[in-house]
Amino acid sequence: VLLCLWPQPLLAVWYLSLKLCPCLSVTRDTQAERDASSTAHSAGADAEMDAAVMAAMRQCLDTDGFLCLSAEVLAPLLQRDDLVARLAVGVARLVELGHSPSSICVYDEHWELIRRLSPLLEAVTGNTASGDIFTFHKSADRKHTGANTHGFGSNPHRDKPTAGPESFRADGAAKYCTVWIALTDATPASSCLYVIPKTLDPGYYLEGDALVAALPGTSSTPTRVVDDAATTPHAAAAVDLGARRFENIQAVPVDAGGGCVFSHRLVHWGSRPSTGALPRVAMSYALADNLGEFEIGEFFSHAAYSPFPPLELRVALRAAQAVLYCEQKPFEKGGLGLATRIWRRGSRFFEPRFRTKVNDAAQWEKFMQGRR
């Protein structure tokens, strides 16, 4: 539909906003508004978070590898004008109509959430928004099977499993972090994040994914370890070291409007939702070192296009995502060709290294489809 409407921008706006999601908008992309909103928000953010609070957040992130931010803490930034609730309704509407949850990125409110959080979280992490975005949807209801993102992040993983020492700064801060914001309540019943804190992860700084070092093992051979509560050598017991690591797993439930910031080396995953629980929806985006020394850096020029990228850029980014993540969410017949055409129409907005990455991924998927 977007491909057909593209020559008529007003029709595209009508379809996306009035037809699909009346509670959301797609018209905020003027340079004047970017400048005004960015300046106004930067001043407000400084007043809402003092230096001591931000220092404590930074220390928590550096110590544990993740930082949990409650809905109460983020309320001054996110809860005015029901931004989070409107995004949740928008995702539900898209899912109801058969669209991907990540298609929410074409709407202004998606970028407004990033705009409001950026001054705080960029100061805490030392990184800036890269353009790497994704929206998760989990539900045990069979009617949501097509929209669910169970294949994304459901198994324990590190976001950058091949990263080495170059992915950290001299002070130990990560050059890549993920911001994960719950648009609906994320509970153990509906699905929430589970993590292995950095302090309990021997593989955090090792080369490769090093998951074996962090996760519970399956060996039935007991290993002698001294219990933490033991006061004498006689209290030592034969304990399966793998089984013992289960106690290192930490749940991170948050209410709608709360979230989590974590480094690229944190082992984490999203749990399976329980039958009868409401769908769990969460929006994520990446903060990365904008010097491009690690990974790709910016996907597009934020100086030129943020905080509200042009609609054509947003749609092209969604198409690029579909190509890059097609192993987890395979294309239906004809889907790759459509995504590639949409991507090419807007690819001029993106940085050369990101264009190369998407084009190579599209070529590889086309080759693999020919072999299936």
From TrEMBL:
It comes from the Eukaryota. Residues 145-166 are annotated as: Disordered. The keyword Signal applies. SUPFAM superfamilies: Clavaminate synthase-like (SSF51197). Residues 1-25 form the signal peptide. Keywords: Signal. InterPro entries: Phytyl_CoA_dOase-like. The keyword Signal applies. This is Phytanoyl-CoA dioxygenase. It comes from Octactis speculum.
